[in-house]
Amino acid sequence: MNKTLLANIDDPRSADLDFYEQNGGYESLRKALPMDPGVIIENVKNANLRGRGGAGFPTGMKWTFASGDPKFPKYLVCNADEGEPGTFKDRPILEKNPHILIEGMAISAHALKSDYGYIYLRGEYPDARVILEQAIDQAYEKKYLGDNVMGSGKKFHLSVHVGAGAYICGEETALIESLEGKKGQPRLKPPFPVSVGAWGLPTIVNNVETLSNLPLLIRIGPEQYAAIGSPECPGPKLYSVSGHVERPGVLELPMGTSLKEIIYEHCGGIKGGKTLKAVIPGGISTPVLPHDKIDCPMDFVNMPKHGSMLGSGAVIVMDESVCMVKVCLRAIKFFEHESCGKCTPCKDGTGWLRRILARIEQGEGHKDDIDLLVSIAGNIAGKTFCPLGDGTASVVQNFVKHFRAEFESHITGRGCPF
Amino acid sequence: MIKVTINGKEIELEQPETILKAARKAGIKIPTLCHHDWLKMYGGCRLCLVEIEKMPRLQPACSFLVSDGMVVTTESEQISAVRRGVLEFILINHPLDCPFCDKAGECELQDAVYIYGPSSGRFKEQKIKHPENNTDPLLARNMERCIACTRCVRMCEDVQGAYAIAMTNRGDRTLMEPFSGNRFDCEYCGNCLTVCPVGSILSRPSKSSYRPWQMDANIATVCSYCGVGCLLNLQVRDESIKKVIPVEDAALRSSFERFGPGVAEKNTEKNLYENSVENRKSLNRGLLCALGRFGHEYVDSRERLTSPMVRKNGKLVETSWDEALDFVALKLNEIKNSSGGSALAGIASPRCTNEDNYIFQKFMRGVLGTNNIDSTARLGFAGAQAYLENLMGQGITANPISDLEDADVIFVVGGDPTIATPVLGLNIRAAAAKGAKIITLGRAAGLGRSKPKEITANLFTENKVLERLLALLFSKKEMTGELPAFEEKLKAAAAAPPAEKTTEVTGVTEAEMAEISEIVASAESFAVVIGSDIVQRAAGHCGLFCLAGISYLASGRIFLLSDRPNEQGLIDMGCLPDRLPGGQSLAIDGFRKKYEEISGLTAPPDKGLTLFPMLKAISEGEIKGLYVMGENPALNLPNWPAGDTRKSKIKSLELLVVQDIFPTETSAMADVVLPALSWAEREGTYTNLEHRIQVLRRAVKNMTYGRDDWRIIAEISSRMGTAMKFSSPADIMAEIVRVSPVHRDLRYPDIEKGTMLCRPYKGQPSKSQAGGVVHGEGFKDLIKTCDRPGGSLDDKKSMHRDFVLLLERSLFYSGVTSRKTPALSRIRPDAAVLRMHPEDAAPGLVEGGRVRVSSPSSEETLELETVFDSSVPRGAVKIPEYLEDLGVGALSLITNLPVDPVTKAPAFEECRVTVEAV
Amino acid sequence: MKKEVMQNDLDNKSLFSPVSLRKRYPTLQATLLPALYEAQKRFEWLSLEALEAVSKELDVPKATVRGVATFYSMYKKHPMGRHLIQLCTNISCMLFGAERLVDIIKKHYGVEAGKTSDDGRFSLVIMECIGACGTAPAMLVNTDFHENLTEENIIKILDEYK
Ligand SMILES: Cc1cc2nc3c(=O)[nH]c(=O)nc-3n(C[C@H](O)[C@H](O)[C@H](O)COP(=O)(O)O)c2cc1C
Ligand code: SF4
Ligand code: FES
Questions:
Q1: More confident of the two residues B495 and B539
Q2: Does residue B800 surpass a pLDDT of 80?
Q3: Which of A13, B98, B324, B699 is the most buried (most CB within 10 A)?
C-alpha cells in the first residue's frame, strides 16, 4: 500500500507547502470545494470512515448531526492532544506532514459549513507548534485558508491552540473547556458538542488522523477508500509501536492488520531475540493481551472480540523481563496524575489503587489485596463521569486477569521477582 | 406529554426534567451530594446513579433528562452497591473526624453514609493531609473533609457572582481555595457555607460553639440591616445567637427532603415559614450578605446600655426606670406647657419596628402636640419616596425585588446596590447572567462582572444626563395616558429645547446617549434602581423627575434603595412631619379626623419641620426638647447642633432624650438615656423597600434592663396623663390596620405566617397627585434648579487644595450595630485611607503620605493616609463613611449643606474639603 | 537546534494576550492558556502577582485564573531553575530504564524529581507520556526534544545546558 498519511515524510522538505503541492497536495480540496457539502458527508458515510482518536465513532454520523444544526458559526476542532501513553502516531503528521491535516480540515470545514477551526495541540509538542503555525501561514498565503478559500467564496480560518499538560483534555468536552480558557474538565453529555460545543455552538471534534484521511477519501472516492483494509472500518491506519521490538516507530498500514504481523513483520520482532510476554495494543487504557492472544486484526470491530480494543493503535510490546505489577502500577500512577478530579470514583479510587499496587510492588502486599484491587476497579468501572475512569479500572482488571500469578508472587515472595 | 416509569410508577411530565425531579414528583427519593437545587447541574459525585432500561451505563439522576418512555430503576442491589462504593471512595481521604466537626448532625455526607454507606472501611493506606486553614478571620477551610462537590464554587460564581474561590489542582489533590490560598478577600456573604454539604467551610465566629442538636431554638426572623429584609434563622443557645443561617438553609432542607423526618425536622420545627420554592424566590432565595450572616454579635456586646441614666450635675448617672421616666414626663410637660408642642421634636428610627414608630408618632402628635417628626430617612429615601409617589401615585416603588431578576434592561443610578442592599444586588447580577443589559450611572463597582454599560458623566452632571435621556426617550415612546397630570409635565420637559451643551457639560457623547436611550426604549421589562447618591443633591428631585419619566415611558418598575431595615415602614407609620400613617396627607382634614377618631388623640393640623430645619430650630433655641429613638444623629447627620465640647450637653436644648441599645455620640450629649431592646430581643414588624411586611421574632432574652421602644414611650405617655393601653405589637398593629388605608384588612396572624405578603397593599393606593402638592411650576423651573448642581467645580479647582468630598460606602459597615460586631470589624479594612486621582495631587502630596482634611465650616479635621486611585473623579477625594472606627465621623466635616427644596434631602457630597499634607 | 517556541507574536499593547491572538477567539478568556504561558515567561513563574496581572488584563476573575493555572501540569507553580528537564517515565520509557535516568540526573546535578538544583541550573519534572515512545526514553529540555537517551549520553546532553 502506498503511504498517504505519512507520504514522503522521510524527505526533509515534507512539511513545506511547495513540496506538498508538487506531490498533489491541495488537489482534493480543489476537488471538494465545488462539491455540495451534503455530498461530501454522504461520501464520508459511504466510505465508512471511523474516528481515529480512540473510540472509533463513525465520522459521517457525527458530521450529519452537526450539519443539521441550524446554529452558526460551527467550530471544527482538530484533536491533536495525543496524550494516551504509547501513542505518537499523530506527531509525524503534525511535524512532517502538516498540510495534509490542513487540507483535511479545509475539506471538512466545507462539508460542515464551518468557518472557524482550531487545532488543539498538546503543550508537549513544541516543535509541532512551530511547524503547524508556519504551515498555516503558508496556507493562508496561498488562499487555502482565509476569507475566500481558493476563490470559492468559502471562508475558513484556522489556528493552533496549545494545551498545557492535561491528558484529560483529549476528551472532547474537556478539550472544548480548555479551548475556552477553562480547566479541562469534561462536560455533562447530553448535550453533545455537535449541538452545544465550544462557546455554546455546534462543534465537531475529530482526531488529527481522522481529518488527515479526508484528502485521500476525496481523491479516490468512497468505494475505493472502503476497499482498503477491514471492510467494517476501512482505510489506512497509523500504528505507533514502542517497547521491546527491533524497529519501533509509526507505521501506516491498512486497517485490520494483525497485531502479530505488526510486531513480527513490520517491526522486526522482539528486541534482542527475547520472547514476548504481553502487549498493550491500543494505548495504556486498552486491555493488555498476553503473548498468546495477539493473533487479532487491529481494528475497531475485531479487537473487542479478542478481548481488547484498538484505541489509538498504540502498541506497547513487553518482553519476558518485564514485571507486570510494575507496569500496572506505572499505568495507574498515570491515571492518578491525570484524573481531573471531577467525579468521585476516578478522583479517589485511582489513588487508592495506586497505593495498594505500590505496596504490592514493594513486597508489602497482603493476600486479600488482589481481590480488593479488583473490587475497587469494579466500583470505578462504569460509574465515572467520563471514560478515563473506565480506562483506569480496565487496566487493573486486565492485568490481574492475565497475570494474577505475578501479583501473587509479589505478595508471597515479599518483593518483585524480576 | 412525556411519560416515564420510575420504580414501576408512571409519571407524566409537561417537559423534560431531570430524573431526580421527576422522581421527587412521584415521591421517590434519590440520594445526592453534589446536586443542589439552586445551582447549575454538575453530576460529579455519582451518588445518584440510577439504572435506565436499554442503557448500558448507569446515569446520574441529578443531571440526566428523562425522555418519553424511559424506564428508570432507582433502587436495586446494583445501585446499593454503587452507593456503597461511591461513599467508600469519598471516605478514603476523609479524616472521619465527626466528633469534632461542627457539621456533625447536619452533614449530608454523614446522613448519606448512615443510610447507604459501607459499615466498615477497607482503606488501610495513608490519607492525603491538608491542615485546616484558619488564616481568614471569618471562614475556616477544612479541605480534608471536602468532597469536591464544587457547590461552594458554583454558588460563588453563578449565584453570588463574586468569583472569589475556585477549585485548584486536579485529581485527589483538588481543593477549594480563595485566590490567595489563605484569606478570602471576598464579599463574605457566606453563601458558600449554606451550600457546603459537609464541614469543609466553617464560620469562625460560631466554630465549636454548639452542636446542631444542642440548639435551644432556631428562630426565623428578619434581618436588621438593610431594606431588603432577608429572612434569617437565628440559631440560639444559652440566650445567645450562635449562628445565622438563611431561612432556607440548603443543608437543612435538602437533607430533610432526602431523608425525611429526622435530625433536620427537629431543626426546622420552629421555622414557621414554608419551605416552598415560590417562597424562596419571593424572599432572599436563601441568600444572605455579610451583614446579615455575620453581623449579630452586637446583641451580646458588653458595651450595651444596661440601665436608664439621667444627667445630674453635668454627668450621666444610672437611675431606676421610674426615676428616669418620671423625669422625662415632667420635663416634656414643662416644655409643652411653657412653649407649646412646636418647641418639641422627635427623631424616629428606621431600625425600630413599625409598632415602635407608630407609637412614637402617636405620642409626638397626640401627647406632645407636635408634628416635628422626622428621621434619617430624610437623607434620601423619605423625600424621594414622597416625591415619586406625588408624581406617579402611591405604591409606585412597591415592586417585588425578585422581579428584578426577570428584567431585561436595568438602569442603576446613584449608588452601588451590591453595597447598599446586597441581596437586591444579586438579583441584578442574576438578571445580567440571564442576558439583561445593565446600565449604570454613578458608582456600581459591585456590578462590574455583569459587564454594565457605564455612563461616566462628570461629577454632579448626572441630572443633565438624565434630562437628555428623558428627552430622547420621549421622542421614541408613546404615552399611555395612564397618568395625565404626569404626562403633561413630561411633555413640557421634552418640549424644552435640546441642551446643546449637554455633551460639553457632562462629558457623555450624544452617540452614547442615543445608544442608551435605544437600549431603554427597546426594553421589554425595564427597571430603574435608584440609590441615595442621586437623591442627595441640591437638585436631587430634578434627577428623580427624569428617572420617573424614563421609567414611565419605558413602562419600567422603580426600586428605591434603602440601607436601613424599616425606612419604608417608618414612612408608612407616619413618622413624617406632613403625613399621617398610611401616607395620608396631614393637610387633608378628612384623613386627620379619621386618624384622631381611631387613635383617640388629636393631631395638630400644621406641618412640622423636616430634619434639617429641625436641627436649625434646635440650634436657634426654637426647639427646646428633642426625643431621639434608636438613632445616632450626632454622628449620622451633618449640621448637628454643637454642644460646648464633644460629648457635652447641647446648650440650646432643655431636654434631650435618647433611647438606644448602645452608648453613642448622641447619648453622650443627652439628659436622659433609656436602654432599649435589640432586634433579636423584641417583636414587631418591618416593612422592606418593596413594601413587604414581615415579622420580627424574639430570639433571645434581654440581659439588660432594656425595654421595648414602644413600651418606654407608652409609659412616658401614661405618666403624662395619656394612657396607651397596648399589650403587644400585635395589639398596636390592630390599631395601625384601622388607621392606615395601606394596611387595611391585614391581620397579624397572617403577617406572622410569613407567606402573607403585604404587597401591593390591600388598601387602595391614592392616585398620582402630580401637579398638586409639589412644584406645579412647570418644567422651566425644573431646568433652572437642575442648572445649579452644587455650583461650578471650576472655581473651586483654582483653590488647589479644595476637593469635593465623596463618601465611600462599605459592604461590611452599617452604623453602630455593625461597629459593635467584632466579626465585621475584622473584615473591614483596618486603616481608613483617602483616595484621590493621582493627577490631582498637589505638590507635597505623595502616595502613602498623611493628609489632613478639613472643611471651612467645621471644627473637625481628619488625618489619613493617601492612596492614588485613578477611578476617583478629578476634583474629588473619597473618604470611607465608616470612619467613626477611628473616633471621628466623616460627616462631622460636613456642615451647612444645601438641602433639596423638594425632597428636603441634604446634598451630602457637595461639600468641599481642604486637603493638606501633614 | 534551539527554538524559542512560546515567543508569542506580541503586540506591545497587551502584555499577555496580544490582539492578534484575541482575534482568533470569540472570548477574551479563550486566550487564558497562552496568556499564562506568556506570563510565566515574563515573571519566570506563575506567582500570585503574575496571575493577578493576567486576571486584570483578561478580565477573568483571579481565583478562576489560579484554578486554571493549577489544573495544568505545564505551568510553573513555583520558581524553577534556568533549564527545565521534563523527563518521561511512562511505560514505554520505563521499559528502557527511564527511572534509572532519574537517579543519574539526581546524582550528577543534585536535583530531585519535582525540585530544583541548589545552583538553580536545573529543575526536573517527571512527565507523563511526551509522545516519543518509539524513541524512548525521551525528555524535553526547555523546548528541545532529546530521544533515545541512555545512561551514557544523558549527561553529555545536559552538560550543554549551562
Ligand atoms: C480520557 C480521554 C482521552 C482522549 N484523548 C484523546 C486524544 O489524545 N486524541 C484524540 O484524538 N482523541 C482522544 N480522545 C477521544 C476524543 O474524546 C474524541 O472521541 C475524539 O477526539 C473524536 O475524534 P475521532 O472521532 O476523529 O476519533 C480521548 C477520550 C478520552 C475519554
Ligand atoms: S473519570 Fe471523572 S475524575 Fe476521572 S477524568 Fe473523567 S471526569 Fe475526571
Ligand atoms: S448528585 Fe448526581 S452526581 Fe452528585
A1: B539
A2: no
A3: B699
| Averaged confidence pLDDT in chain A | 97
Residue B87: what residue type?
L
Q: Tell me the CA–centroid distance for residue A56 and ligand 1, in Å.
A: 9
Pocket flag, ligand 2, residue A187 (CB < 6 Å) = no
Q: Which domains does chain C have, with CATH numbers?
A: 2-71 (no CATH), 83-159 (3.40.30.10)
Contacts of B148 by beta carbon, 8 Å cutoff, 6+ apart = A341, A342, A344, A347, B44, B167, B174, B176
Is B125 close to A359, i.e. CB distance below 8 A? yes
Kindly state the average pLDDT of the residues A382-392.
97
Percent of chain B whose predicted confidence (pLDDT) is above 70: 88
- What is the C-alpha separation between B538 and B444, in angstroms, rounded? 22
- Range with lowest mean pLDDT among A105-114, A134-143, B257-266: B257-266
Q: What CATH number labels B309-375+575-746?
A: 3.40.50.740
Q: Are residues A75 and A213 in the same domain?
A: yes
Tell me, yes or no, whether A211 and A337 share the same domain.
no
With a 6 Å cutoff on the Cβ, whether A342 touches ligand 2 is yes
Question: Do A377 and A396 contact (CB within 8 A), yes or no?
Answer: yes
**Ligand 3 pocket residue status of B738, Cβ below 6 Å:** no
Domain count, chain A: 3
Residue C147: exposure state from Cβ atoms within 10 A (0-12, 13-18, ≥19): middle
Highest mean pLDDT among B391-405, B460-474, B864-878: B460-474
pLDDT at B501: 76
> Of A198, A156, A122, whose CA–CA distance to A37 is shortest?
A156
CA distance B495 to B475: 10
Domain range summary for chain B, segments of one domain joined by +: 2-75, 124-300, 309-375+575-746, 381-560, 794-917
Measured from the Cα of B20, ligand 3's closest atom is 2
Q: Is B62 in the pocket of ligand 3 (CB under 6 A)?
A: yes
Ligand 3 nearest-atom number relative to CA B48: 2
3-state secondary structure B768-791: CCCCCCCCCCCHHHHHHHHCCCCC
The number of the ligand 1 atom at minimal distance from the alpha carbon of A175 is: 17
Q: Are residues A189 and A262 in the same domain?
A: no
Q: Is B120 part of the contact surface with chain A (CB cutoff 8 Å)?
A: no
Asked if B322 contacts B269 with a C-beta cutoff of 8 angstroms, the reply is no
Q: How far apart are the first and last CA of chain B?
A: 76
Give per-residue pLDDT as tens, B287-336: 999 999 999 999 999 999 999 999 999 899 999 999 999 999 999 999 99
What is the CATH code of the structural domain delimited by B381-560? 3.40.228.10
**Structural domain containing residue A350:** 324-412
Beta-strand pair A236-243/B71-73? unpaired
- Considering every ligand atom, which ligand is closest to the CA of B43? 3
A266, A287, A319 — which closes off a domain? A319
CATH class given for the domain over B124-300 = alpha beta
Average pLDDT on B127-132 reads: 95
Q: Residue A210: inside a domain, yes or no?
A: yes
Cα of A280 vs centre of ligand 1, distance in Å, is 18
pTM: 0.93
- Of A117 and B895, which is predicted with more confidence? A117
pLDDT by residue (tens digit) across B714-725?
999 999 999 999
Model confidence at A403, pLDDT cuts 50, 70, 90, reads very high
- Give φ, ψ of B867 to 5 degrees: -125, 130
140-159 of A, contacting C, C-beta below 8 A: 157, 159
CATH level 3 topology of B794-917: Barwin-like endoglucanases (2.40.40)
Tell me: do A250 and A344 sit in the same domain: no
Q: Which CATH number fits domain B2-75: 3.10.20.740, 3.40.630.30, 3.90.78.10, 3.30.530.20?
A: 3.10.20.740
* Ligand 2 contact via A186 beta carbon (within 6 Å): yes
Q: Residue A278: list chain C partners with CB under 8 A.
A: none
Q: C touches which chains (3+ CB pairs under 8 A)?
A: A, B
Q: Within the 168-227 window of chain B, which residues sit less than 8 Å (CB to CB) from chain A?
A: 169-174
| Residue A8 located in a structural domain | no
